[in-house]
From TrEMBL:
Protein species of origin: Methylobacterium nodulans (strain LMG 21967 / CNCM I-2342 / ORS 2060)
SUPFAM superfamilies: CoA-transferase family III (CaiB/BaiF)
InterPro entries registered for this protein in UniProt: CoA-transferase_III_domain, CoA-Trfase_fam_III, CoA-Trfase_III_dom3_sf, CoA-Trfase_III_dom_1_sf
Protein name as annotated: L-carnitine dehydratase/bile acid-inducible protein F
Keyword entries, A-Z: Transferase
GO molecular function, one term: CoA-transferase activity
Length: 382
């Protein structure tokens, strides 16, 4: 899926990426996929995720490879005057700055918000941090798992009889990166009217809390602290994984019509007429009885085949797949969700634009790979 960057929606936008690890790099990879010229600025020791393996390829961990394509990489030591001078030169030509330093770090290096706004009035400055710069937790470092714990996500994730559990992927880091992309897009859009950049403030703490639907909405209405329900939904039934003769199937029945179609296809249509199951509220109240009633008819099917039959009938269902199965699925490949370039394989861009599509033009860069290409014009000016 290699195309010219000029075809992307963000063609002509230059991004200086000072971020490391996940939230920031994930954000800037999305910007790069959509045509932005992303300059990844690493410290002399490199982005620490280069060492977060195995697995490794050519000395670089898969973790780094997953969030750093479509970028040009340079190294700068921002603790030195020459490093800071080069950063100022880069920012003079930039549209966006993305960083996830602990609040106050850039200030100590002479790049406070006030300085940046005065020196580069059109610059969109996006900071990703744990808690923001002020407030009771302001300035403290943030980490995905800690944000999941503090933000309430772990309290509602896991089996009912088990303890709080971390979501099995860095969901807070990633949704913070997504929100950073949204904020940057908003700011660039507004800049077209005002001619001015602005500060985009995104925190792991805020983004973790923003994910608490429907648990927060339920709490605001009934005052009851949500509890863990495993794969079961707190407001809908059946909306959970259930066993079949082969594999587990997730049923996501959102209304009474879908439930009637489900039990019809399972050859137990009478269940839709029983008072205990006729409405979602009744099914939710009688969830355990419903599981028992569905167990025998489900045991006559295999999850994958049944899920396909149900989907074709408009009943939301899915067989539980592992990562290998997902990445090999024909529809995954049809949608371009696996991309390859020069030996690199990665996940494809999920946002498809009709006229200005995303593209994968550069594999993840080697450490400092583009130093001469990026910095030579600035060094020549000295």
């Amino acid at each position: 899926m290699m195309t010219d960057a000029a075809s992307g929606a963000l063609a002509g936008i230059r991004v200086v990426d000072l971020s490391r690890v996940l939230g920031g790099p994930y954000c800037t990879q999305i910007l790069g996929d959509h045509g932005a010229d992303v300059i990844k600025v690493e410290p002399p020791g490199g982005d620490e995720t280069r060492g977060w393996g195995p697995p490794f390829r050519d000395g670089t961990a898969s973790y780094f490879q997953g969030t750093n394509r479509n970028k040009r990489a340079i190294t700068l030591d921002l603790t030195t005057d020459p490093g800071r001078d080069l950063l100022r030169a880069l920012l003079a030509d930039a549209d966006v700055l993305v960083e996830n330093f602990k609040p106050g770090t850039l200030d100590r290096w002479g790049f406070s918000r006030t300085v940046l706004e005065e020196a580069f009035p059109r610059l969109v400055h996006c900071r990703i941090s744990g808690f923001g710069a002020d407030g009771p937790l302001g300035g403290l470092p943030g980490y995905d798992a800690c944000a999941q714990a503090m933000g309430g996500l772990m309290s509602v994730n896991g089996e009912a009889e088990g303890g709080p559990m971390r979501v099995g992927l860095p969901v807070v880091d990633m949704v913070t990166g997504l929100n950073a992309v949204i904020g940057i897009a908003f700011a660039l859009f507004e800049r077209e009217r005002s001619g001015r950049g602005q500060f985009v403030d995104t925190t792991l703490y805020d983004c973790a809390i923003s994910l608490l639907h429907p648990h927060a909405a339920n709490f605001f209405m009934n005052g009851r602290v949500p509890v863990r329900t495993g794969n079961a939904h707190p407001n809908i039934a059946p909306y959970e994984t259930l066993p079949t003769a082969r594999g587990e199937i997730f049923l996501a029945i959102g209304n009474d019509r879908q439930f009637a179609n489900l039990v019809r296809l399972l050859d137990v249509p009478h269940l839709a007429q029983e008072p205990d199951f006729a409405t979602n509220a009744a099914r939710l109240t009688n969830r355990e009885r419903l599981r028992t009633a569905l167990a025998e008819p489900l045991s006559a099917h295999e999850a994958a085949a049944l899920a396909e039959t149900l989907l074709e009938a408009g009943v939301p269902a899915a067989a539980v797949a592992d990562v290998g199965e997902v990445l090999a699925h024909p529809h995954t490949l049809h949608r371009g969700m696996v991309v390859e370039l020069d030996g690199y394989r990665g996940l494809g861009p999920p946002v498809k634009l009709s006229r200005t599509p995303a593209s994968v033009r550069r594999p993840p860069p080697r450490f400092g790979e583009h130093a001469h290409e990026v910095l030579a014009p600035y060094l020549a000016q000295d």
